[in-house]
Amino acid sequence: MNKAIIGALAALALAGSAISATAQTTLRVTLQLPIKHHLGQNMLDFKKEVEAKSNGDLKIEIYPSAQLYKDKEVPQAVASGAIEMGIASLTRFAGTAPAVDIFYVPFMFDSPAKVVKATSPGSAIRAGLDAAVLKTGTRILWWQAFGSAILLSKNPGIKLPADMKGKKVRVFGKTLGDMVKALGGAPTLMSGSKQFLAYQRGTVDAGMTGITAVKSRKLYEVMDNMTLTYHADIEFVVVINEKVWQGLSDANRKIIMTAAKRVEKELRDKMGAIEQDALKSVSDKINVIDLTDAERGKWRKATKPVVDAYIKRAGAVGAKLVEEASKL
Description:
- By secondary structure, the chain is of the alpha/beta class.
- The chain has one domain: D-Maltodextrin-Binding Protein, domain 2.
- Helix content is 48%, strand content 19%.
- Helix 6 (174-182) links the parallel strand 5 (168-171) and strand 6 (186-189).
- Helix 6 crosses helix 12.
- The chain starts with a helix and ends with a helix.
């Protein structure tokens, strides 16, 4: 009898051990862009390292092209725990953390060097924004460089600030909407995944996006001109539900952060080359309008009032970030 009981207990212990050994934590990630876009490739790189280093304990499932959520829905979906992880434009957190729009204040970060300094882990600007987003129930794991903002338009093309007057313009944030209003246009807030149809149907006359999106979303098929204003730096962030994060083991959190730091730096380092490649690949498909320093100066002057509008909305935190940006 004793032998039978001991045998049964041993079998149960072995079964428990087997279950524990095969236990797996799945982290689903919602992505707005196609997997072939550089943000998708960056996430794939992260997935491979995390799954390999965790010996299968962590599994990353990527859902690209807004299959599960539109970008405006990502912050709430992750904060509520409806999905474990998500990738969204930083400005999508402006509803609860208005200060994040510092990167969309026109010409605030007008050189690659300033962008690198502002987005570096540990910088005063980034630390303040990471903390603001954490209060929403989501933790930023890493920042994904998306590139510079440009303008798309039907004919005639947009070259000077006055050309914006009376135009309906797709924007992806309130501060960029303020820019359009300052130039006499009418902003329309719209998810990136809806751009193609909006341009095709003429819902808007012009739109703001990144050069890489023109390539990956094939926007050159529905727009005539691309103006290289480079008026804002577009940043995306990879976020995870804070409760999910706290529920992970110390070892798995370390694996995730090690991979996150590596893929962030690698993407940031090659962003310039990625943008130039994207520009080259679409230059024969769409009319590219570059600007002289004098023309860009007119854009700076015409959009200067947007800084005050941003500070009014973002409060003391926003004022502090503008001060820090001026030091770069």
